[in-house]
Amino acid sequence: MPEVAIEEARRFMEESLQSVGTPAQQAKDHAALLLHADMTGHFSHGLNRLELYINDIRSGATDAKAQPVVLKQKGATAWVDGCDGLGATVGNFCMDLAIKKAKEVGVGWVAAKRCNHFGMAGWWAEKAKSEGLIGMAFTNTSPILVPTRAKQSALGTNPLAMSAPAKNGDFLSVDMASTAVAVGKIEVQIHKGEPIPDGWALGPDGKPTNDAQVAFKTGRLLPLGGFEQTSGYKGYGLSAMVEAFCSGLSGSNSTHNIRSWALKSDEGSPNLGQCFVAIDPECFAPCFGERMADCLQHWRNMEPVDPSLPVLAPGDKERINEEKTKKKGTITYAPNQILHCNELAKKLNIKPIQVL
Ligand SMILES: NC(=O)c1ccc[n+]([C@@H]2O[C@H](COP(=O)([O-])OP(=O)(O)OC[C@H]3O[C@@H](n4cnc5c(N)ncnc54)[C@H](O)[C@@H]3O)[C@@H](O)[C@H]2O)c1
After folding, report:
1. CA nearest 108: which of 82, 76, 132?
2. Could you tell me if residue 222 is left (phi over 0), alpha (psi between -120 and 50 degrees) or otherwise beta?
3. Residue 331 and residue 7 in contact, taking contact as beta carbons nearer than 8 Å
4. Which of these, 58, 43, 10, 93, lies nearest to 264 by C-alpha position?
5. Is the Cβ–Cβ distance between 337 and 48 less than 8 Å?
6. Is 135 helix (H, G, I), strand (E, B) or coil?
7. Distance CA 139, CA 267 (A)
8. Do 342 and 352 form a contact (C-beta atoms < 8 A)?
9. Domains of the chain, with CATH numbers?
10. Interatomic CA distance for residues 108 and 93, integer angstroms
11. Of 91, 96, 204, 229, which residue has the fewest beta carbons closer than 10 angstroms?
């Protein structure tokens, strides 16, 4: 499998973005977001998505030079216009503002309209965690989630993320789509030529499918929990909650009005809604970090059913992957990913990605 040095992957992402007019700082911020996905093992949200962002910049759906503006603010809250800027530009602006407010008044709650795809929701929640705060981040997406009992999609994979600091640098990080799986997991099954498990998706006839290609083309994912019998309505409920925080508060498109996100799409701004929250735990009972550390350690020390599969705390998988990647100094990409990058490099007239 091809190995690429971390800094080379970063260089490739930054140069690709800059080649279509993204200013250096915005390209650097967006590359950091994508690189984090690859380093934590969420390959669907890293280099794999680069061309989609490039396409959005080229088609004018994303204004890579745009800077968000505050439309209204009061105490802990702010309403922001993302101005169709890059995901990382708007994410940094909004979470920095939420952090500032949390440090001043205990809580910061920022909702933004006219946003673009912001990658892993957890990246944004962890930004607040790194400042000693609890962070939360939410976004709506293109419609792909079939509400319980419906035949067609209306909500999105609408992810929710929450991260909290614990003593001695430990942390909790919950970061998940509100569908049974993120679309990227279906793409992975297609690449492997394998079927998808029960409870992931419906086919065009509204009946469950195990065919990854059919599921991907049809775009009707079941909510987290699957069918009604297995409490899929709870995932539907979580997706609806994200919708309220994102389009409800910001005035962006509701998910059922958002265009699809695909290569060659030229349907203009998706006008996504996003929401960023920071909370200062110091405003509540003393010793939050100690209690979080105690919970995390208690869960990890539980006896596993299978001794080769230790109990994890939410966020451990990503943390462990990131530590391993940093130690190795390289990222292992699928051969197809490198081929795509070489084609992209030709189109953008930049240096191809160097494989070790
Ligand atoms: N921007 C968007 O439009 C968008 C949409 C959907 C998903 N996403 C992102 O895609 C990424 C993947 O989402 P997903 O739903 O496939 O995540 P996932 O199913 O891989 O993980 C979900 C959560 O479960 C935790 N987890 C995994 N295995 C665990 C275990 N054995 N024990 C305890 N906790 C465990 C993970 O640490 C994570 O917090 C996320 O970063 C999400 O934000 C983004």
Report:
1. 76
2. beta
3. no
4. 58
5. yes
6. strand
7. 20
8. yes
9. 1-59+323-356 (1.10.1530.10), 67-180+221-283 (3.30.1370.60)
10. 13
11. 229
Q: Whose CA is nearest to atom 32 of ligand 1?
A: 312
Q: Write out the two tokens for 35.
A: 């690189």
The per-residue pLDDT for range 62-116, each reduced to its tens digit, is 999 999 999 999 999 999 999 999 999 999 999 999 999 999 999 999 999 999 9
Query: Edge-to-edge strand order for the sheet containing 77-81?
Result: 69-74, 77-81, 107-115, 272-279, 134-139, 160-165, 171-176
Q: What is the DSSP letter of 264?
A: T
Cα-to-centroid distance, 317 and ligand 1 (Å): 10
Ligand 1 pocket, mutate which of 140, 317, 318 (most atoms under 8 A from CB):
317
**Ligand 1 atom with the shortest distance to the CA of 173:** 39
Token reading at 4 = 């690429």
Short-list 270, 226, 221, CA closest to 86: 270
Helices (DSSP H) in the chain: which residue ranges?
A: 6-19, 24-39, 50-59, 87-105, 121-129, 183-192, 212-218, 233-243, 249-250, 288-300, 316-328, 335-348
Q: What is the pLDDT of residues 132-153, one digit of tens each?
A: 999 999 999 999 999 999 999 9
Taking the C-alpha atoms of residue 84 and residue 118, their distance in angstroms, rounded to an integer, is: 12
β-pairing, 330-332 with 160-165?
unpaired
Cα 181 to ligand 1 centroid, rounded to whole Å: 8
Please give the number of the atom of ligand 1 that sits closest to the Cα of 174: 39
Residue 100 CA to ligand 1 center (angstroms) comes to 27
Rounded to whole angstroms, the Cα distance separating 241 from 247 reads 10
